[in-house]
Amino acid sequence: MEGSSQTPTNEDLASVSKNATKKEAAKQEKLRRRQEQEALAASASSLAVDEEDRLAANYGDVPLKDIQSKRVEDVSRPTKVGALTNALENCSVWIRGRAQTIRAVGKNISFVVLREREFTVQCVVTVQPDTVSRQMVKYVSGLSRESIIDVEGLVSVPSVEIKGTTQQVEVQVRKLYCVTKAVVLPINIEDAARSDAEIEKALQAGEKLVRVNQDTRLNNRSLDLRTPANLGIFRIQSQVGTIFRQFLLSEDFFEIHTPKINPGSSEGGAAVFRLDYKGQPACLAQSPQLHKQMAICGDFGRVFEIGGVFRDEDSHTHRHLCEFTGLDVEMEIYWHYSEVMDIVDRLFVTIFDTLNETCQKELEAVGRQYPFEPLKYLPETLRLTFKEGVQMLKDVGVEVDPMGDLNTEAERKLGQLVLEKYGTEFYILHRYPLAVRPFYTMPCHDNPAYSNSFDVFIRGEEIISGSQRVHVPELLEERAQACGIDLKTISAYLDAFRYAAPPHGGFGAGLERVVMLFCGLNNIRKTSLFPRDPLRLAP
Amino acid sequence: MEGSSQTPTNEDLASVSKNATKKEAAKQEKLRRRQEQEALAASASSLAVDEEDRLAANYGDVPLKDIQSKRVEDVSRPTKVGALTNALENCSVWIRGRAQTIRAVGKNISFVVLREREFTVQCVVTVQPDTVSRQMVKYVSGLSRESIIDVEGLVSVPSVEIKGTTQQVEVQVRKLYCVTKAVVLPINIEDAARSDAEIEKALQAGEKLVRVNQDTRLNNRSLDLRTPANLGIFRIQSQVGTIFRQFLLSEDFFEIHTPKINPGSSEGGAAVFRLDYKGQPACLAQSPQLHKQMAICGDFGRVFEIGGVFRDEDSHTHRHLCEFTGLDVEMEIYWHYSEVMDIVDRLFVTIFDTLNETCQKELEAVGRQYPFEPLKYLPETLRLTFKEGVQMLKDVGVEVDPMGDLNTEAERKLGQLVLEKYGTEFYILHRYPLAVRPFYTMPCHDNPAYSNSFDVFIRGEEIISGSQRVHVPELLEERAQACGIDLKTISAYLDAFRYAAPPHGGFGAGLERVVMLFCGLNNIRKTSLFPRDPLRLAP
Questions:
Q1: A338-358 and A228-250 are packed helices; what angle lies between their axes, rounded to 10 degrees?
Q2: Chain A within 8 Å of B527 (Cβ-Cβ)?
Q3: Which pLDDT does position B17 carry in this prediction?
Q4: Is the model more confident about B69 or about A299?
Q5: Positions of B marked catalytic
Q6: Which of A343, A387, A515, B498 has the fewest CB atoms found within 10 Å of its own CB?
C-alpha cells in the first residue's frame, strides 16, 4: 500500500518519482522552485501595508464556519464562468472557481485567471478608492495556485483579444475571498493540459516547457483530472454508458447486477484474484459471463450489465488493466448468432453517431491535447468471416495460422487492410476457429472446427467478443471438459441449463477501451479514472 | 464452493436441503414423485402407436444443428404470447415459450399451457386428419415441464373464461416442436409463484399446496427467477437505476466508475474482504466514498456511480448482504448540506413517482405474490432533526441516547410515529451526533458534537446515509485520527485534499434495499439477483 503511488510532498519527492525518469524528477524540482519563488515574489512585491484596512471586509479567507452549513439563508448561486459573455457587460457577478494563475503587476494591480471546469476568465484586481485596497492586492497576489476563490465584480469587455482564457470578457474585481487554500502543487494544470505539439513548437522556438509524464499524472490524479482533456474524456465515458443503456432499454433489454465474488474461477482461463470468503475459497469475477447466462436461463430474455471486471493480468501493455468496467449483453436468439451481431452493429453505430452529435466540445477538448482523426465507420457495419480476414492477410504476404487466433500485430495489419479496402475502422470478424474461443461458445452447424462467434475491432484493436452460447447441458459439459475445466467448479452454472435454456448469445466490451479507441488515445490508463495495473494499486 | 448451493439432482436432494426444514424436504420429495407419475401417466395414456406417421413432420425435437445458426434465412419472428388477443382470432401464429403444464385428456387431446415471461396461453392439441396425429398427441403429452417449445396454430376464442392463463384466447395447435428439453424439476414455477394467502386459503379448504422456502428458491435461482413476481422485481430494479441516472444526468451530474480493489480499508470501520494484489495487501471497496470525493477534488463537480459494494458482514438479518449495488452521489455545494438533501428529496420523489407511473404491471405482479401497500410519501420530503426524532420517541416513552445512534427498533418506532403524525413513510432525519458518523463527516458550525449529516428512511428502515464532507485537510486528518484510523492507510485520499478541495457533500443508498422497501418485501435476498450473504456464495 505504501510506496509508488502516494502523492508527493516536499519531503518525499524522490521516492514518489521512482517510476518517473530522473529527468522528469529534475523538471518537477525546477518547477516547484519556480513556484515557490513566484509566491515569495508576489508577497514581497506588495507594500508592507500593515496598517488597518477600512476595506478589509472585501477580501480574506472565508471562515470555515461559513462553509459548515451556516449560511443556509444564502440561496443565491454564482454565475457559471462558461456563461460570462459580452451580454453581461457592466453586470455585477459572483463567480467561484480556482485561481489557476496569479500575476502581480507592481503594487496596485494583480491578475487572476479563474477556472471553473474547462472555462477560464481573467479577473483584474486594481486598487480603487471605495473597493480595492493595496492590502487586498497584496492578499490576492499571495494566493496559492488552484485555491478556490469567490470573486465579485463587474463584467467588462476589453478592446483587444484576451489570450490564454476561454472567456472573452474580464471581471473587474470588487470583492475576493478564498474558500479553500491549496499547498504548493506537484504539477501545474497548465503543464498537465499541454499537448506534445505545443511542447515541440516551443522547443523549436528555443523555449523549454514542462512535459508531465504518465506516472506523475497518475500519482497526482486528483490534480491531473482537472485538465480540459480529462474532463472531456470522463464526460465522454459517462455518455457512452448512457447511450449504451438507452439503446438497449429501447430494444427491450433490462439491466442486471451480477455478483463479483464467486466460487471457482468465472471462465476457467485467465488468472483471477483470489480471496477468502468466510472460510471458503472465492475469486473475483473475470466477467459476468456465467451469471448473465443464468439470468437468461431464468427467462429474463434480454439483459445487460455495466460493472466491474477483475483480471489478475501480467500484461504491461497500453491496453490491459487489472480492473475495468465491462459492458455486457446477453439475449435469447431464435436461430442465428447474426441476431446478436445485428444488436452490436446498431448499438455501436448509435454510440458513435450520438457521441459525434452530443460530445463535440468534449471531443475537441480531448483533441486539443491529444490530436486524433474522427473514427471512420459505416452506417451498416462490415462483417467479414475469420477465413476472409486470414485470406486478406495472406494476400499481402502475412502468414497466420488459419486455425489459430490473430495476434495483436496481425489484428492491426488487418485493420489497415480493411480500412484501405472498405473505408471503415470499425468492423466485425466472425466464425472464429472453435479452439481459440471459450468453452461456452457454440460450434458451427456445418463444421465443428469453427464457432458461431465474433470479435469486433476499432482502429485495428479488438474491443468486443461475442458468440452464440451452447445451451444444451450435455454439449456444454463436453466442451468444458475439452477445455480442461473442472466441472465441479462450474456446477451451479451447468445446473441452470438442465431446466431448458433458451438458445441465446451475447457479447462483452470494455468501457475504457471503447473510449480510448474512439478518441484514438494511446493508453488505456487515460480512460480509467483511477487505473489498476500490475504496478499500480493507488491512488 | 461445493455444498449448500448446488442445484439438487435425484441423488443428492437430502444434502441440498440441509438449509431447508425436514418438512420442506418431504414436500419436495412428494412433488417429485407426483411429477414422475404424471410423466409416466402421460406416455402410458397414449396409444402404442409405433407405426409410421404420415404427419410426423408436424412435431418432434428440433435438431440442434437448426439452432446452431443454420437457419439464417429464417427472419420471421414469433408472435409474443402477451400479444395474443381476440383481435387475432382465426389467425395463424407461431409462438415460442415454455411448456408450463401438460395435461393429456384421453388419447386424442392434450392441453399445454405455454408461458413466455409473465404471459401464459392455453394450447390445445387435438387429433385432426390433416395436421395432428395420435402420435403427435402422445409426443406432446410426454414433454417435460419447462421445456422450450415452438407452437404453430390458429387462434380461437372460447366462449367461457379461461382460468389459470393470462391470455383469454387459445391456440389450436397444428405443429409443435421441442427446442430445448428440461429434466425433472426440483421446484415447479406454479408453486414458486404462489402467495402465502393462496396456500392458507387452500389449507382452510382442506387442500395442501406446496410452499417453496427461501433457500430452495435461491439454490435453484434460475428456476425461481421465472416467476412473475421475480420478473417484476428485477424489471423494477432496472427501472430504479434508469430513473436514478436520468434524473442526475438532467441535473448536470455525470457517471463515474471507481476502483473496487484498493489498498487499505476504504473507510476504516466495518470489516472488509482482503486479497493479495501482486504481492501487495489489498481490499475490496466498502463503498466508493473516498474515490468519489477524489473525483470532486478533480473538479468533476457532480458525479454519481452505480456499482458493486463489498462488506464482510456477519449480520444474518433480512436487510444485510455481503455484496450489493451501491447508488452513490457526490457533489460540490456552496454553503450548506441542505443542497445535498434537496437532491435526495427530488431524486427519490421522482423515482417513486416514475415507478408508480411506469411499472404498474410489475408492481401488480409483485403484489399478487407478496401483497403490499403502496408507499406513502409527500411531494416535498419531510425533514426532521435528529433531536426532534429523539424527542418524538421520548414523548411516547421510548428512551434513546440523545448522543448515540438509533437502533433498528427505535428507527422502526420512529417511522411509525412519523407516519401517524405526518402521513409519510419516507423522510429525512438530519443533524446526527458527530460521534456516530464516519470520520469524513463535517461537524456543525454551531456545535461540534453534532454533524452536517442525514439518514433517510423508508417504512421505518434506513436506506440512505449522507452528509457534507470535511474538505479541509487538517480537519480531515484530525477527524480520521479521532476515529482511530491509521493515516497511512488513507494517505492517497488525504493528499487529494491538499490542492484545495471544493466544499462538497453526497450520499449513498443500496439499490436492493430501495427496491425491497418500496415493494414492502420482507427480505433483501428477494431483490438481489444472486445474493451473497455470510452463508451463501453460490449460485
A1: 140
A2: no
A3: 37
A4: A299
A5: 311, 313, 319-320, 462, 465, 513
A6: A387
Give long-range contacts, CB 8 A cutoff, 24+ apart: B283-288: B284/A261, B284/A275, B284/A284, B284/B260, B284/B310, B285/B258, B285/B259, B285/B260, B285/B261, B285/B309, B285/B310, B286/B310, B286/B311, B287/B326, B287/B328, B287/B508, B288/B258, B288/B326, B288/B328, B288/B508
- What is the distance between the alpha carbons of residues B352 and B356, in angstroms, rounded to a whole number? 6
Half-sphere exposure of B343 (CA within 13 A, CB side): 32
CA-based nearest residue to A389, from A375, A373, A407, A372: A407
pLDDT in tens, B118-136: 999 999 999 999 999 999 9
Q: In terms of Cα–Cα distance, which of B25, B61, B208 is closest to B142?
A: B61
pLDDT at B498: 97
Distances (CA, A) of B27 to A512, B210, B243, B309: 50, 7, 42, 37
Query: Residue A45: which of A142, A161, A146, A167 has the closest Cα?
Result: A142
pLDDT digits (tens, 9 = 90+) for B107-121: 999 999 999 999 999
Q: What's the rounded mean pLDDT across residues A183-206?
A: 95
Contacts of B489 in chain A (CB under 8 A): 1
User: CB B146 to CB A500 under 8 A?
Assistant: yes
Task: Tell me the pLDDT band of B26, cut-offs 50, 70 and 90.
Answer: low
Angstroms from B185 CA to nearest CA on chain A: 7
> B223 vs A499: CB contact, 8 Å cut-off?
yes
Q: Which residue has the higher pLDDT, B41 or B64?
A: B64
- The ranges assigned to domains in chain A are 48-180, 191-224, 228-527
SS3 B473: helix
Q: Which string of DSSP letters, residue by residue, matches A266-313? A: SSSSS---EEEETTEEEEE-S-SHHHHHHHHHTT--EEEEEEEEE---
Helix (H) or strand (E) holding B137: helix B134-141
CA distance A226 to A187: 11
What percent of chain B lies above the pLDDT cut of 70? 88
Q: Is the CB of residue B180 less than 8 Å away from at least one CB of chain A?
A: yes
| pLDDT in the model for residue B76 | 79
pTM to 2 decimal places: 0.91
Look up residue A489 and give its amino acid: T
Q: Are A124 and A102 contacting, i.e. CB atoms less than 8 angstroms apart?
A: no
CA distance B270 to A55: 51
Q: For residue B72, what pLDDT band results from cuts at 50, 70 and 90?
A: low
What mean pLDDT is predicted for residues B223-251? 98
Task: Sort A365 into a burial class: Cβ within 10 Å, 0-12 / 13-18 / 19+.
Answer: buried
Local confidence band at A35 (pLDDT 50, 70, 90 cut-offs): low
Closest CA to A241 of A319, A305, A292: A305
Does B68 sit within 8 Å of A442, measured CB to CB? yes
Minimal Cα–Cα distance from B246 to chain A, Å? 9
Residues of A with catalytic annotation?
311, 313, 319-320, 462, 465, 513
Q: Which residues of A touch B68 (CB under 8 A)?
A: 442-445, 452, 468
| Contact criterion met (CB < 8 Å) for A263 and B1 | yes
**What's the CATH superfamily of A48-180?**
Nucleic acid-binding proteins (2.40.50.140)
CB within 8 A of A130, min separation 6: which ones? Answer: A55
Rounded to a whole number of angstroms, the distance from the CA of B374 to the nearest CA of chain A is: 24
Note the CATH number of domain B47-180.
2.40.50.140
Place of cell 452505480: B306
Span B228-527 CATH architecture: 2-Layer Sandwich (3.30)
The pLDDT confidence band at residue B70, using thresholds 50, 70 and 90, is confident
The whole-number pLDDT of residue B13 equals 32
| B309-333 average pLDDT score | 95
The residue-averaged pLDDT of B328-344 equals: 97
pLDDT in the model for residue A269: 54
